[in-house]
Amino acid sequence: MKELLFSSPGEECSLLLGRKIGELLQAGDILALWGELASGKTLLTRGIAGGLGVPPQARITSPTFTIINEYSGRLHLFHLDLYRISGMDELQTLPWQESLFGNGVAIIEWPGRLGRLLPEARWDMEFSITGDQTRTMLLRCHGSKNLARTPKWWDVLGELQSNAVCRA
């Protein structure tokens, strides 16, 4: 199975899902977050940062204007928000390649802006707004290395659906 559908009844569940994903991430992982504005991408990133051991006092915000934020934890976290990137020329002025191809973890909001430069080996998460607080998130795996890891991911993340915080 290459994909897992996850339903979140609210922010607390989305943060918990992010935390579990952060605990599963390994050096070199790339997580591409797809979804409209206010669909929960940055909220999930906050949870992931917690799972990576980023100190709680670090303010995890969307790097809409700075484009790339970095955080130190168990693994270095690069949080990219490409919403304001207008073209590939603008992208070339940023250290985005170091963020994606280093020894840390990269989370990309608005990954479609990378076009053909988006790495094939990655995890994609598509967000859908289903209500004021509710979201569905479809997690997809790309690349043979990641595919080999999906049984563990699906076990860990699938268990969350029975967690009281995540039951609708």
Write a compact overview of the structure shown.
Helices cover 30% and strands 24% of the residues. It contains 5 helices and 7 strands; from the N terminus they run βαβαββααβββα. A 7-stranded mixed beta sheet has the order 1-7-6-2-5-4-3.
Can you describe this structure?
With about 170 residues, the chain is α/β, with parallel strands linked by helices. The chain has one domain: Rossmann fold. Helix content is about 30%, strand content about 25%. It has a seven-stranded mixed sheet. Strand 3 and strand 4 form a beta hairpin. Helix 1 packs antiparallel against helix 5. It is globular and about 45 Å long. It starts with a strand and ends in an 8-residue tail after the last helix. The model has no long low-confidence stretch (mean pLDDT about 90).
Question: How many strand elements?
Answer: 7
CATH topology-level fold name: Rossmann fold
Low-confidence stretches: none
- Secondary structure category: alpha/beta
Q: What gyration radius follows from the Cα positions, in whole Å?
A: 15 Å
Give the strand line-up of the largest sheet.
1-7-6-2-5-4-3
Strand % is 15-25%
Number of domains: 1
Oligomer: single chain
SSE order, as H and E? EHEHEEHHEEEH
Largest sheet: 7 strands, mixed
Arithmetic mean of pLDDT: 90
The best one-word shape is globular
Please report the distance between the alpha carbons of the first and last residues: 24 Å
Number of helices: 5
Helix content: 25-40%
Per CATH, which architecture?
Answer: 3-Layer(aba) Sandwich
CATH class: Alpha Beta
